[in-house]
Amino acid sequence: MDYALTIHRLQFAFTITFHYIFPQLTMGLALLLVVLKTIALRTGNERYDQAARFWAKIFGINFALGVVTGIPMEFQFGTNWARCSKAAGGVIGQTLAMEGMFSFFLESTFLGLFLFGEKRLGPVWHWVSSIAVFAGAWLSGYFIIATDAWMQYPVGHTVDANGSIQLSSIGALLTNPWILWQYSHNMIASVATASFVMSAVGAFYLLTGRSMKFGEIFVRLGVISGIAAAFLLAMPTGDQQARMVATHQPVAFAAMEGLFHTEQGASLVLIGQPDVEKMRLDNPIAVPRLLSFLTYQRWAAEVKGLDEFPRENWPDNIPLLYFSYHIMVGLGTIQLAIMGIATVLLFLKRLVKTKAMLWTLMLAFPIPYIATTAGWITAEVGRQPWLIYGLLRTADGTSAQVGSGSTMFTLMGFMGLYLLLGLLFVFMIWRELEHGPEEAT
User: Fold this and answer.
1) Alpha-carbon distance 354 to 342, whole Å?
2) Is 167 helix (H, G, I), strand (E, B) or coil?
3) For residue 243, what are the CA distances in angstroms to 296, 304, 317, 325, 441?
4) Helix 355-363 and helix 212-232: axis angle, to 10°?
């Protein structure tokens, strides 16, 4: 692979992975803020308003860091991926502009009202502002997913004689069939993230004997929303998204599953190590015929392997794709198990007294972050060698005038700057945790 191309991809991967840490939480937390404000409005319980104020501060810190780290993403389309922008800017520019003009301004405007206007707005309108923040956050996610969905499964476009891709139908772009399950899966993953974070904070307060009443609220809401999100991540969203890949990107699906040869009654591999040179999986542990059934609802169905496709169309890093996919699925299973046990203990009214479970909840909050990152790696590495599937190869989308040295220099700059931002973020979050919900006035 061309060295400059590798550095371009590495820089984009680093900056977008770091950036997504923040909206991954805010999108899910926006929904939980609406729940807290709704309970406060219906019951008149001031404690839920205090809880909402506390989490609004956590939301605000994440939102600010998300904005700061998101700005470079827009510039990289021009600086590092100029040929892609020139070829497809008429399409992807539509959804990216909508995200900035509509959803971002909706979210940021009402976030200001939510954070600083509670006394002036009153209970009902402050609740309405929380709904507007939620709508802006989830609409933002929709436009970003619509952009990526078009790159995965291009629709509603024409290609000019000079190779430029033009939008022919805004409706087709915004109703791309790829969006439904990718968007659902992604947004529920953000709810799972917020649920685990809220549960972890609640468990921390219960274990340290501080803010006990708020700890119970956080754990209860986090576990209830967490079990729902963990289940929906697996079925139907994860299952349906995998079927979309199998139908429209079968070579990526074969690489994800480590299926080198076409099989009838294909086994579902739980663990194994892909050996691309020898076209096999080493030390596999598999469930016979299950992959065929999960994909096509027939035990003897044929599933195409990598040997059915030209090597130049294979994903360029099959081990990374395979392990990312299996890490995502494995951690998703662990999420479901943790929240399932916690839900049983909550139902039995033993959760807040079971220290082992509280420790598990407190230490488990990184799991959805890792799982979501692995999921995005699966989606983006699986699309390779295409930048826009079937239309533009990744190697043809870079900026020809930007060399590897320049990109490496800016990558090191981003790493240093984001290290400082990360330390600032940890300091600000820890300060809010130390202050606690009682001081969230």
Assistant:
1) 10
2) strand
3) 8, 13, 21, 14, 48
4) 60
| pLDDT for residue 256 | 95
Which residues are bridge partners to 231 per DSSP?
Answer: none
Residue 32's nearest CA partner among 215, 220, 169 is 220
Helix residue ranges, H only, 209-266:
212-232, 239-248, 250-257
| Res. 409: pLDDT tops 70 | yes
**How is residue 290 written in tokens?**
């299950």
DSSP state of 344: H
Contact (Cβ atoms closer than 8 angstroms) between residue 150 and residue 166: no
Task: Evaluate if residue 400 carries a pLDDT over 90.
Answer: no
Q: How far is residue 300's CA from residue 292's CA, in Å, rounded to a whole number?
A: 6
**Residues of the domain holding 187:** 3-161+170-262+304-439
Cα angle 387, 327, 224 (rounded to 5 degrees) comes to: 110
Whether 191 maps to a domain, the answer reads yes
CA distance 62 to 426: 11
Q: How confident is the model at residue 1 (pLDDT cuts 50, 70, 90)?
A: low
Residue 379 inside a domain? The answer is yes
Closest CA to 34 of 112, 130, 101: 130
Judge whether 359 lies within some domain: yes
Q: How many domains does the chain have?
A: 1
Say yes or no to pLDDT of 119 above 70: yes
Q: Cis ω on the peptide bond leading into residue 310 (within 30° of 0)?
A: no
Omega before 236 cis (within 30°)?
yes
CA count, 13 A, side-chain hemisphere, 61: 18
The yes-or-no verdict on residue 438 having pLDDT over 80 is no
Q: Tell me, what's the pLDDT at 439?
A: 57
Segment of 25-39, 99-113, 427-441 carrying the highest mean pLDDT = 25-39
> Does 40 reside within a domain?
yes
- Residue 418 pLDDT class (50, 70, 90 cuts): very high
Q: Which two tokens stand for residue 285?
A: 């542990």
